[in-house]
Write a structure and sequence with these properties.
Layout lengths: L1 E5 L2 H11 L5 E5 L5 E3 L2 E3 L1 H10 L17 H8 L10 H15 L4 H11 L5 E4 L6 E6 L2 E4 H7 L6 E7 L8 H9 L2 E4 L4 H9 L2 H9 L4 E4 L2 E2 L2 E2 L4 H7 L6 H8 L5 E5 L6 H5 L4 E5 L6 H14 L3
Parallel strand pairs: 1-2, 1-9, 2-5, 9-10, 10-13, 13-14
Antiparallel strand pairs: 3-4, 6-7, 6-8, 11-12
Bound molecules: ligand FO1.
């Protein structure tokens, strides 16, 4: 059984690649960027994995449902609501059902398992916690929810720090802890280290289980050189005072992982990373299509010996 820690658009490609090669997979999903909008509970990272595995994902955008329409949002605009967060008409069904089930007393874990069934997905998607953990971006102009900072205000203000509100009180999902404990291999997907994977690691029970299991944990770098393959990882890493390189990532992850996959072009960092007591594997980590998703997945499954 393989367990993957995943965040948003950077992670889904590898999740898809691994799931096309092996069946018994758990995905532990970030919940830090979940967002309440119009009374609906939106869970972008859970939905990206759901849609990605159900072959419904809009792969150009990396979120939402492909070929979705936006009539609902247009009507909200007519009614004078803010419409900066582009929820599609088909996507809204997911949020509506989820919110309704929450209101009827179900927890996010059970709702997500139900969704996996509805979307005919074998992979188990496990929210890292059923409690609220919210990723907040501290800027020079104040503190914002991640979605407000990145989508509403287009990431324009300087980032001074990142907080995971509620993480200190959040209880690790027992199913997530078990999924780490029972896995033969744990893969930290190439998600944003601070806003996709960081909130998962901010939950004590998860970090503790990973640290205990670190000999079977491999992290896949989301950086090539000092650039992120996608998204604002660099901005957040700089704000957190991290070195923006595979080595900077290795320092962050060396507490919870003993193996790291880096891009071949970063091979000059291999020695330095090995000095952190990590095994390093070099390959092409960018995944621009299904062939490259499968190639990286099979590299990990064949080459990483834990
Ligand atoms: N990202 C955007 O950049 N703009 C959007 O309007 C937007 C809408 C949206 C709706 C549903 C959903 O599940 C995700 C959505 N995202 C949007 C993506 C999301 O903001 C982030 O990419 C993830 O939270 C990062 O993991």
């Amino acid at each position: 059984m393989i367990t993957i820690l995943a965040g948003g658009t950077g992670s889904v490609k590898l999740v898809r690649g691994i799931s096309s090669q092996t069946r018994d997979i758990n995905v532990i999903s970030n919940v830090g960027d979940n967002y309440w909008l119009y009374g609906l509970y939106v869970c972008p990272d859970i939905d990206t994995i759901l849609y990605g595995l159900a072959d419904l994902l809009d792969t150009d955008k990396g979120w939402g449902i492909k070929k979705d329409t936006f009539g609902f949002l247009r009507q909200m605009e007519i009614l004078g609501e803010e419409t900066w967060f582009k929820i599609g008409d088909r996507d809204v069904a997911t949020h509506l059902l989820r919110t309704n089930m929450l209101k009827n007393g179900k927890n996010l874990t059970d709702i997500t398992a139900w969704m996996c069934q509805k979307f005919a997905i074998d992979t188990k998607i496990i929210p890292v916690t059923d409690n609220s953990v919210e990723t907040r971006i501290v800027t020079n102009k104040g503190e914002l929810h991640l979605q407000e900072y990145w989508v509403k205000y287009r990431g324009q203000d300087n980032v001074e720090g990142i907080k995971y509100l509620g993480a200190d009180k959040a209880r690790a999902n027992p199913a997530a802890v078990n999924a780490i404990h029972d896995a033969k291999l744990v893969v930290i997907a190439p998600g944003n280290p601070l806003t996709s994977i960081g909130p998962i690691l901010s939950i004590k029970g998860i970090k503790k289980e990973l640290s205990k299991s670190k000999r079977k944990v491999v992290v896949v770098s989301p950086l090539v050189g000092n650039k992120a393959i996608s998204g604002p990882a660099v901005k957040y890493m700089e704000a957190a005072g991290m070195e923006v390189s595979a080595y900077g990532l290795a320092k962050m992850y060396s507490e919870v992982a003993s193996h790291m996959v880096i891009d071949s072009s970063d091979r000059l960092l291999t020695r330095k990373i090995e000095n952190l007591d990590m095994h390093v594997y070099e390959t092409k980590i960018k995944m621009k299509d299904k062939i490259e998703e499968d190639a990286l997945a099979s590299f990990i499954l064949k080459q990483v010996h834990v």
